Structures are given as structure tokens and as C-alpha cells.
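lol forgot to send this yesterday, sorry. C-alpha cells for the thing we talked abt
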């Protein structure tokens, strides 16, 4: 249990990095943040005492698999990789298509990459996506009804799931919080999971967006597996085991250029 807030930007960066990667060594953190290993050790000791990280010899791991990283930190974390994934996925969408876009910072990067497209019909439960795309006169943007989550603009709840289920679209573009090596797709929040499942059920082709750090994160909620998607867009070549799972599920792998 956390007893204190994160009072310094460096502490916030450390927690975000540890949660994103699953484990970070003292040396990696020191290099990333431009400080000494001794400083990192002191920081980790303080963060472990307040329950923000779990301290191990040589580094630290997340304390919980039940909470996602704060939205503002997710926006900046691996932003170049997310932009590259978004651009790669946008290239798969023809003009004149209909598509679902779900909650997440990677799907928001995808939405920003649609600026060169024409005549799209978008259904989303992501308030930020709707705001970004709504000025386009040749786009028809439908916002799912439901409870707006203040921390990230996600629209959730039974109303959102029902709204999404009222449509049928050419593409469903989804982001998730974790991917297991065996192909299990994971997320932190039950409401998000229900919305993602509705999108996957009602899209003719499902495109999953996930950067390489999602392989080290272990949320507890199961969204589904690779048999429910058609395309997987990521920023690094996955392990041989995971590529075997993709092939068995007949999923097309798309890897961005190195960023």
C-alpha cells in the first residue's frame, strides 16, 4: 500500500519505467535518468518504503499487477515507438473505411496518424480520439455513450459496451496493457476489457497495437488471445516463441522501422 505521493519528477520517472518494463536494473535506471547508481539505490529504497516499487538486489520491479501507469506518464513513455506503431497501423486502413478505436495512448497515436486519410467513419470510446478527429469534415466520428473516466478520457461501463455493440465496422483498432508469450492478451480494467471484446466481436478485421514493453507487463485481466485478432503491430521483432504463436493463429506481424 502506498503511504506517500511521488514528490519528485525523477521518482515519477523511475516508477513509470519500472512499471513499463517489469524490472529495471540500477544501472539501466541510472543511465536512463543521467544520475549515479548510488542515487538510484537511494531513490529505490525510498520508493520501496512507500510501496511504489518492490526492491530487489540489483534493481526493482512493480509492486502490483492490478493498476496501470498514470495516463500522463503513459503519454510520454515510449512516445516515439507509439507514433511509429500508429503510423504503421494507419497505413493498413484504406480511405472510405469504418473503424473502431479503443482506449489507450497507442491508439491515440494511431488516430493522429490518420490525417492523410479521407472519408473515414470512426466509432470510439476514447474521448481524446474523438476530439482529435472531430474537426475533419470528411470524417464521421461517433462517440460511444457511457461514463467518462477523468484520468484518461476513456468512456467505459455498460453503456459504452452497448454503444459499441450497436455498430459493425471494417476494422477494430485496439491497444492493450500486456501480452503473454503464449498469446494471451491482458488488461488492467474490467470495463476496458468488456469494451475491447465488443470491438473485436463487431470488427471484420482486428488490428492490435502494442509496443515491446507490453511483453514484460502482467495485468491480471484476460481480454482474449491471438485467435481474436488479424494483425499485430509492434516496434520490435517479438521472440521466436511468440512468432510461432502468431503463425499458428494466422496473425500477420507488422514491425515498425527502428526508432
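and heres what i got for the seq, position by position
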Amino acid at each position: 500500500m502506498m503511504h506517500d505521493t511521488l514528490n519528485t519528477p525523477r521518482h515519477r520517472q523511475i516508477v513509470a519505467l519500472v512499471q513499463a518494463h517489469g524490472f529495471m536494473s540500477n544501472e539501466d535506471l541510472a543511465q536512463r535518468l543521467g544520475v549515479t547508481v548510488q542515487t538510484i539505490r537511494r531513490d529505490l529504497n525510498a520508493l520501496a518504503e512507500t510501496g511504489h516499487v518492490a526492491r530487489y538486489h540489483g534493481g526493482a520491479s512493480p509492486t502490483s499487477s492490478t493498476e496501470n501507469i498514470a495516463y500522463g506518464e503513459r503519454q510520454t513513455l515510449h512516445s516515439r515507438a507509439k507514433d511509429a506503431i500508429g503510423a504503421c497501423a494507419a497505413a493498413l486502413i484504406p480511405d472510405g473505411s469504418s473503424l473502431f478505436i479503443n482506449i489507450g495512448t497507442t491508439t491515440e497515436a494511431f488516430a493522429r496518424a490518420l490525417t492523410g486519410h479521407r472519408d473515414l467513419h470512426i466509432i470510439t470510446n476514447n474521448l481524446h480520439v474523438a476530439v482529435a478527429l472531430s474537426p475533419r469534415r470528411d470524417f464521421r466520428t461517433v462517440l460511444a455513450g457511457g461514463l467518462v473516466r477523468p484520468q484518461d478520457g476513456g468512456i467505459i461501463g455498460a453503456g459504452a459496451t452497448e454503444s459499441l455493440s450497436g455498430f459493425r465496422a471494417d476494422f477494430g483498432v485496439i491497444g492493450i496493457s500486456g501480452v503473454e508469450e503464449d498469446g494471451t492478451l491482458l488488461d488492467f480494467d474490467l470495463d476496458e476489457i468488456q469494451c475491447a471484446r465488443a470491438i473485436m466481436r463487431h470488427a471484420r478485421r482486428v488490428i492490435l497495437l502494442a509496443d515491446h514493453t507490453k511483453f514484460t507487463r502482467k495485468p491480471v485481466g484476460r481480454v482474449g488471445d491471438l485467435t481474436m485478432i488479424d494483425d499485430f503491430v509492434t516496434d520490435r521483432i517479438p521472440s521466436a516463441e511468440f512468432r510461432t504463436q502468431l503463425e499458428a493463429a494466422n496473425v500477420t506481424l507488422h514491425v515498425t522501422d527502428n526508432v
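The two ends are 36 Å apart (CA to CA). anyway ping me if u want another try
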